[in-house]
Design a protein that fits this description.
152 residues, alpha+beta, Immunoglobulin-like, 2 domains, 4-stranded antiparallel β-sheet, 3-stranded mixed β-sheet, 7 strands, flat
Length: 152
């Protein structure tokens, strides 16, 4: 039977090996990131088909977890945008301009609005995609105060 000191030493060696292995996986993953050079470009228009300046366009990865900031761009005066340096894979592309009533539709709250999202696939054979994003009707904005019965 192992004494406590021996058990702790064995456990520490296992944890050290796991930590080194995990660091190796992270380094390998970071070296592979950015090797693909995909891009998505297109235009953002409102419900009447007019270009939307200043909308944030997002490319949310669908086939892997997102580590870091979601790739994005801001549409110009013609509604045009380009998001480059994307890894190959599937993306949900959407636009938002919350200050004008156009929310980010990728949030779970907007489950019924997924028709407004464009799904693309980038690969070595299809390095770029072109999408037209329609913001649709503006969302309602709720303003008010929330108070409880005890503290007012």
């Amino acid at each position: 039977m192992m004494d406590t000191r021996t058990a702790r030493g064995a456990m520490q060696r296992i944890m050290n090996r796991l930590t080194i292995s995990f660091i190796g996986v992270l380094v390998a993953a970071s070296l592979s990131v950015g090797q693909d050079d995909g891009s998505v470009h297109g235009t953002v228009v409102d419900d009447s088909g007019m270009p939307v300046k200043g909308a944030t366009v997002y490319a949310h990865p669908l086939d892997r977890p997102m580590a870091g900031i979601v790739p994005h761009d801001i549409s110009d005066e013609n509604g045009s945008f380009t998001i480059s340096k994307l890894d190959y894979g599937r993306y949900s592309v959407s636009a938002a301009k919350p200050d004008e009533g156009y929310p980010e539709l990728n949030f779970a709250f907007y489950t019924g609005f997924h028709a407004k999202l464009s799904v693309i696939r980038l690969s070595a054979q299809h390095k770029s995609a072109t999408v037209a994003l329609h913001l649709g009707k503006k969302a309602g904005i709720l303003k008010g105060t929330v108070a409880d019965a005890i503290t007012g």
